Amino acid sequence: MMSATQATIQLIENTLGKSPAYSRIDDKLYVVKQGSTFVMINVLPWGEDRVIVRCAAQLVRGVKLAPELSRKLLEMNGILRFGAFAFVPEGNVVLFLHSILGGHTLDPEELVATVRDVAVVADEYDNRIADKFGGQTMQELLEESVLAHMQGGAKTPEPF
After folding, report:
1. Per-residue pLDDT tens for 13-47?
2. How far is CA 72 from CA 55, 78, 79, 121, 130, in A?
3. Could you give the maximum distance between any two Cα atoms of the chain, in Å?
4. Chain Cα centroid distance, residue 124
5. Contact 29/40 with Cβ under 8 angstroms?
């Protein structure tokens, strides 16, 4: 019988693999682009034969964690039907994440619903947070990165 981790990886790849929005980043790490956000899917072994599937979306980077923002995120956590907002000090990042049990009991519908709902919440709140508290949304960071890459790529190559 295949392990819970192997079963989870196989289900993720079979369920999402044909979508053009899906990419495999690394062993046990995937990303799905939905709207203006990216949902990272991480397979985390837990004990002998259990697995957690953590779906997380970065909403804003470079935001100052003011008391008003902290309070608002906690209030939202109290009324959302699933998932939670989080703050990561490294990079001053606001995330939205939700974890589900993987393994042999995970089904494709549950996985797709979780990824979709994390993306919907992230897409709904990224601009609201950035507009009110500062920082950059994932979409803004990507556009900035592409522009910098294009400008850097447009330089004349150095002669030998």
Report:
1. 999 999 999 999 999 999 999 887 899 999 999 98
2. 21, 10, 11, 15, 13
3. 62
4. 14
5. yes
